[in-house]
Structure formats: structure tokens, C-alpha cells
Amino acid sequence: MKKSPFIQKFIRRKTLFYYAAASLILLTIYSCLKAKAETKTISSTSQLTLDVTYSSVNFFPENAYKVPHDVPNPKDSGQVALSQFAWKEFIALNWPSSYNTTTFERGKPDKSKSVSDFLNASNTGQLVWQTYKHRVELYPKNTSNYNKNFDTAPQYFYDLENQESITGLNSSTPLDQITTIFNNLDETSEINLCTLFVDGDPDAPGATDVNKSKTSSGLPGAPRRMIYEAKANRDMFDYVSDNYLYDASIRAQKIKYTDNAIKNENKGAIYQANPDSNMIVFPFGDNNGVEGSIEVKATWRQLTLKEYNSGRYLTAPIIYYRGGTLAKPNPDGTAYYDIVPAIPTYKTEGSSSTLLSLPYGLVGLHIIHKTKTFPSYVFATFEQVDNLNTTIEPNNTLFYYNRNSNPSVNPDKQYAYRANPILEGTEKVNANVYKQIKALDSNSVWQYYKLIGVQGHPQNNANTTDYFLSNIVTETNQTLRDFSGTLDNLRGTFNPQAINLYQGKKKIVQGGCKGCHGNAQDADFSFITKNAPIVDVDFINQPLLKEGQ
Questions:
Q1: β-strand 335-340 against 167-168: which pairing, if any?
Q2: Is residue 28 exposed (0-12), middle (13-18) or buried (19+ Cβ within 10 Å)?
């Protein structure tokens, strides 16, 4: 039967409509796939993020020495934007410092240095973050040793119970008269919970077969222990000084008041232009204002000669501590310091030379930065690329002992592995940075450091990006690497569902670095402040931690 002209017209229009609808759907799918290929968008519980493309940022402009005060776009808190922010921080903080023994200016870049100078990192000159104030300079037990001037030579005062001063293994000079070493490695464990090692170096000066099994001895040839330092920048130091936080009684009052204010008055982890003066509220970074409060925690370990010669590790002069002498090690006895140069040292006799010491290399760097957009801080962590052989399988050289281990009776040696992979967005930013570094200086040491991840806004969901952010050599066991909630004690048991972060009225169970520091929110996320004062030092030959200690 022949259809009427009206019906034929209707069918044609309907057909055209279906074609148009199908075309629109295909175009939408294509656009989504294209956008996904070019950018990475990360969902947030608080907002939609607007990540920029991976390759759109030049990390080495003429003013690469400038620390970013905040993210450029507060509406963009996605993984790519945060990763780019973290790398800009890393570059600026590792810029050659302006410090010299005439002005003693600390925490500032030498603007006369070029990008080439940064890439060709010196083993002897100080970097910006290295000239920050050490935690014991910020909070000495004896406040008469506190110096309100940020721009001074480094000086370290401890209050050991059984000795008036710490002298050197090979020097009678008291520690507090050593004013040339910025890397003061006075911690040998992570919150007294776990100790981390890498296999011993059989070719180390003085190495013996006997030493190889003495994990906690610190003797040549024994497994090499990760050791740490923590520092704070000028903005944080000035706040401590101006608000008398170096005074123990004032600090305790403010911590107590802050704890109440964040839990009962909804003042936690929010932007405060005019904060309550009775609270601890460190300065925030503002693109139209100051840099903001920054803390760094650096992880170091002794290198082998092969590792040093590889050019893959930043080295620097360091101080570490041991109990007893090398000949008579006694971890419960007298404390001694030892200074290790940034390069191997040799003793030359005639035509022969003997290796005397090997330098320490930087293997991890935490950076936490309080900004206007992120009043609970941006947490970024970097590692040396050789820390792990693989990303998910145990490394056969990096291992740890938990607090309740007793290696001499029942060894509990556990190998380190990365349970949470580095995110795609971060890896692509890493690749972009490496590409730029290699184009400028193919021998630069900085191509051997990588961003592991970044945490921005607090998250209540363990499935969100970088929720369990950690550093394989700083968070020293799997409990810390999978951290959320609160630690119930120092034996590794924790409550993963406990509230640990307050953001206004929101109560959050945060994981990773930010969750750990959330346990110090009454000190505005600063464990340096919460755990003050700094009284003594950890020994490199300190016994492995035992349950009940």
C-alpha cells in the first residue's frame, strides 16, 4: 500500500532525527575519549577538578628558584596540578642556597645561580631546604639556647642526662661548636616504631664478615641504617619566635587550646584570615602574600663506592651519632658525633691509597607546605629511583625490623615493597620533568629522583587518589605505609577508623602522610612542634626496638 505524502515526510524526519541523535552520541563518546587521552581528571568528594595537560608546564624558567606559594588555580586540585606544584617546590627547595659565612642568610635561593647550576648540583654547597632550621634549633630543651635570629650558623644543643656535651669520634670539639654542617641526622627510626636497613657493603672501609650479621651495630660491613633529619622554614620559625612557642609552658597551653578549638568550635583545617591568637595556626602560603609554612624530612643512608661513582645520588656533609666508639661500641653509653664528608676520603701513603670513609646519599624527601587553598597542608614525597627494584615485589636489599622483633633470637626481617602504585597522573608529570632535565643536562643527578605522590584536600574515602601516600624509606614498615586513623600505642597496632582530622564541622578519617600528621592537628599538623622539645639524639648503633621500650 502506497504511503501518503504526509507519512513519507514524517518517516524521513524521524530517520534524520535518529541519524542526528546517533551522530551526537558518537561525537560525545569521541570527545570524552579524546579528553581522557589528553588529560586526567580525578574526582573529589568536595569538587570537580580541572587538571591541565601533562606537558603544558615549563619546570625550568629563569625564576625556577622561586618556591610556589600555592597552586595557581584553587579550583584545580587534581593529581596533575598537585604533582606539578610538588615538582616546582622540589626544584626551588633544592636550588643552591644564598648562605655564606658573611650574611648567614638561610632558607633563600642564590638568584645569581642558573638552571645549569641547579642541574649540576654541587656536593659541597648548601641547598635551600638544607639551610632551614633543624628541629633542635627550633625547640631546644634549654630555652637559653634558643636563638631568635633565623640567619645564623647552624648550632645544635642537646640535653643528654649523663654527659655535659657530645664530642666527636675523632675530635674533642663539642658538638655545639660545630657550626658548618647543616645535615644533622639525629633520628634513626620512624616514631620509634620501626627501623629500616639496606644490605651491608662488603667493600666498606673496615668491613668484616663478623659485622655482616650485626644489624644494629652500625659497624663497617653491617646493614646500613636509614637515618633522618627534620627542618622548618623561615615562616614557621618566625611564627614560633613571635608566639613564644619555644617556651614549653606556652606551647602546652596553646596545644590544649587548639585541640579544643578544632574539636568543639569547628576551627580545624580551614582558611583563617584572622586566626584565634590562642590557637597554633602557622602562616599559609598565598600567591599574593607569603611563602607559607614548610617542613621537610630527609632520609639518608651510607652509599657504596659504586653507588657514589654512579652519580645517581645527591650527597652532602652530614653529622650522625653513635653510642661508644668504633673500637668499643656501646649503644647505652657515651654519645659521640661523627662528621662524614660529601665525597669518599682516602689515606695516601706513597703510591697507594686506602679508602677511609664513604658519603651518605639522599634517598627520600618529604615536603609539607601550608597554603591558602590547602590549610591542612600539601603533602608531597620524593624518593631516589633505586630505592626499590620493582614496584610491587619485595626488594631483596631493603628490609625492616618492627618494634617487637628480637633478631638475635627470632629474626623478623621483612622486605620492603610498594603496596600502592604511583598514580598515572604523577608518573606522566615525572616523565615530563625528566624529559626537560635530560634535554638541559643529561648527567644531572635530579633525573634520579621521582615524585611518589601528593595529598591535597582531606579525604574520607580510602579509594580516593593517594589516600595511603607514603615514602618507602621514611615510613619504615607496612603499618605506616597503610596508615589511617590513629596509633593506639608504639607497637604497631592502630585504629584505622578513628577520626584523625577535623575540617570545620567535617570529621575525617584520613590515611597516609596527611592522616599521620592529622594526629598532630592540635599543633597545626607539626610533629616537630607537638613532640618538642628535642632532648637527645638517636644512635646509628641503637639496638633494634623491642616491645615495651
A1: parallel
A2: exposed
Left if phi > 0, otherwise alpha if psi is -120 to 50, otherwise beta: which for 548?
Answer: left
Closest CA to 337 of 323, 320, 325: 320
Whether residue 455 contacts residue 379, with contact meaning beta carbons closer than 8 Å, is answered with: yes
Measured from the Cβ of residue 493, the count of other Cβ atoms closer than 10 Å reads: 9
Q: What is the reported pLDDT for 264?
A: 94
Q: How far apart are CA 130 and CA 141, in angstroms?
A: 22
Q: Where are the domains of the chain?
A: 79-531
The Cα angle at residue 366 between residues 486 and 474, in degrees rounded to 5 = 65
**Neighbour tally for 47: CB within 10 Å:** 13
Residue 452 CA to residue 404 CA, distance in Å, equals 29
User: How big is the CA angle at 546 (ends 540 and 549), to the nearest 5 degrees?
Assistant: 95
pLDDT digits (tens, 9 = 90+) for 68-108: 999 999 988 888 999 999 999 999 999 999 999 999 999 99
The distance in angstroms from the start CA to the end CA of the chain is: 97
Query: Residue 480: which of 507, 513, 432 has the closest Cα?
Result: 513
Return d(Cα 222, Cα 302) in angstroms, integer: 11
Angle between helix 424-440 and helix 79-93 axes, rounded to 10 deg? 40
C-alpha to C-alpha distance for 429 and 353, rounded to whole angstroms: 45
Cell 618566625, located at residue? 238
CB neighbours (10 Å) of residue 113?
17
Beta strands in 388-544 (DSSP E): 398-402, 414-415, 449-455, 486-487, 494-495, 501-503, 506-508
| Residue in the structure block whose three cell numbers are 614548610 | 294
Q: Is the dihedral of CA 319, 324, 329, 331 positive or negative?
A: negative
In sequence order, the β-bridge partners of residue 365 are 298, 382
> Out of 122-126, 210-214, 226-230, 482-486, which region has the weakest mean confidence (pLDDT)?
482-486
Q: How many CA atoms lie within 13 A of 376 on its CB side?
A: 28
The answer to whether residues 166 and 337 touch, using CB atoms and an 8 Å cutoff, is yes
Q: Which element (helix H / strand E) includes 264?
A: helix 248-264
Q: Write down the H helix ranges in 367-482.
A: 424-440, 478-481
Give the cell for residue 155: 648550632
β-bridge mates for residue 449, sequence order: 384
Preceding omega of 283 cis (within 30 degrees of 0):
no
Least confident range of 21-30, 113-122, 395-404, 481-490:
21-30
Q: What share of the chain is helix, strand, coil (3-state, %, to 5)?
A: 25, 20, 55
Look-up: residue for cell 646519599?
361
- Other CB atoms within a 10 A radius of the CB of residue 91 amount to 22
63 and 410 in contact (C-beta within 8 Å)? no
Residue 426: CB partners within 8 Å, gap ≥ 6? 79, 83, 451, 452, 453, 454
Burial class of residue 174, CB neighbours in 10 A (0-12, 13-18, 19+) = middle
Grid coordinates representing 286?
A: 598565598
